[in-house]
Specification:
single chain, 391 residues, alpha/beta, two-stranded antiparallel ribbon, 43% helix, 12% strand, globular
């Protein structure tokens, strides 16, 4: 049985290192509200605080100024625009870009921007910013009209698919690479039907998510039956399509095994694992509309998970305690698991409780094991094909 146990002394040393280096990434929740009312949205099931509306220029300016003040010798800083729907606050989006560009010129740094949007409010001005600064961009669309309108109605109850399609098509007319993020809900849809729809639409990369609301489960959350159904679809339909696409010398637009296979092919498979699962309380720290700081955008509106204010800076004690609590929750199980090097532990938000504690749920472990078995199968089958072609 493998043992990747990190001693308390070594963990504390790594924790100190994590918070003694410069900080060059930040997420801004430009709008805590949204023009859609998606039935699966975690904002409606996990928040225990009211929405704070739109971020002001004052909050945005303070956040960007703080980021540049703590980025040290980094040549770049990264700013992610999030929501709700960030494009409900176009004036502050415009201000944030222009102000950060002024500071970048002053400090001789480059700014990378990214944004997630539902596409309904994309216009020529926003698309010009996206193109000019080469935004990292993810568009939310849940499939054909009958699926998307059922899952993502507008606030007035009408369907939002037509508006989203119009905005996304306008974007695609000026930008080739566009990633779609589709959320699958109960009852589980057919994965390959979604993949074909998004492929024909013109997206260059497809990301599929499964609905989970850890604090207050919703009626559209994936059930165990849904997970089993999609796993079966992956085995019987997706994997043959992936292998066929690879055999044609093309990269599949939906490729959930990409990182695993890339690691294998590069020979850079991890041999050790950081106790810090992600950028929570660090690179993904999110500034809410009123300036409150949270570990990442999913925690916004959860009172027990506040980690400071942009006006006083992050509370590093709370940031460290976040990871101490997380590590204490997952380490006894995860650090003795053979999948640890691939899994890195569960997403903190997915095991977070409303009271500010974590509770490990091992139900996903078998699902991860099934995914890794599929990834190994795809890698071995494709490697065998390549070997035969070289003979």
């Amino acid at each position: 049985i493998p043992d990747f146990t990190v001693s308390p002394e070594h963990f504390e040393k790594q924790l100190e290192q994590r918070y003694s280096t410069s900080w060059n990434k930040l997420e801004l929740a430009l709008a805590e509200n949204c023009n859609l009312a998606c039935k699966y949205c975690y904002c409606g099931t996990c928040r225990d605080m009211p929405m704070k509306g739109l971020m002001t220029k004052e909050v945005a300016q303070k956040a960007i100024s703080w980021l540049f003040s703590v980025c040290g010798n980094n040549d770049t800083v990264s700013i992610t625009f999030f929501g709700g729907e960030p494009l409900l606050n176009k004036p502050v989006l415009r201000f944030a870009i222009e102000y950060s560009q002024k500071l970048a010129e002053l400090h001789q740094k480059k700014v990378f921007y990214s944004m997630t949007t539902n596409g309904t409010l994309l216009d020529d001005e926003v698309i010009s910013y996206i193109k000019r600064y080469n935004f990292g961009l993810m568009v939310s669309l849940d499939g054909p009209q009958e699926i998307h309108d059922q899952q993502c109605p507008a606030q007035d109850g009408r369907g939002s698919h037509a508006l989203a399609v119009a905005g996304i098509k306008k974007l695609m007319a000026r930008r080739r690479a566009v990633t779609v993020r589709c959320t699958m809900t109960h009852p589980a849809p057919n994965i390959m039907d979604l993949v074909r729809y998004f492929d024909n639409f013109g997206f260059t990369r497809i990301v599929l998510g499964r609905t989970v609301n850890p604090v207050n489960p919703s009626p559209v959350d994936f059930t165990e039956e849904d997970f089993l159904k999609t796993q079966r679809q992956e085995r019987e339909e997706v994997i043959p399509w992936v292998l066929e696409t690879l055999a044609q010398g093309k990269k599949p637009k939906y490729f959930p095994y990409a990182k695993f296979i890339s690691d294998q092919e590069s020979g850079q498979c991890p041999t050790s694992c950081s106790p810090f699962r992600c950028g929570a309380c660090r690179g993904t720290t999110t500034v809410s509309a009123d300036g409150t700081l949270y570990p990442c955008h999913r925690f916004v509106g959860m009172q027990a998970w506040q980690i400071g204010s942009i006006f006083t800076g992050p509370n590093l004690t709370k940031c460290k305690d976040f990871w101490r609590k997380y590590h204490a929750s997952v380490a006894p199980h995860c650090e003795k698991c053979e999948m640890w090097l691939q899994c890195h532990g569960p997403c903190p938000w997915e095991i977070a409780k409303a009271d500010g504690s974590f509770e490990l749920n091992t139900a996903k472990c078998k699902k991860l094991g099934d995914y890794l078995a599929q990834a190994v199968y795809v890698y071995n089958k494709d490697a065998k094909r390549k070997k035969l072609q070289m003979q």
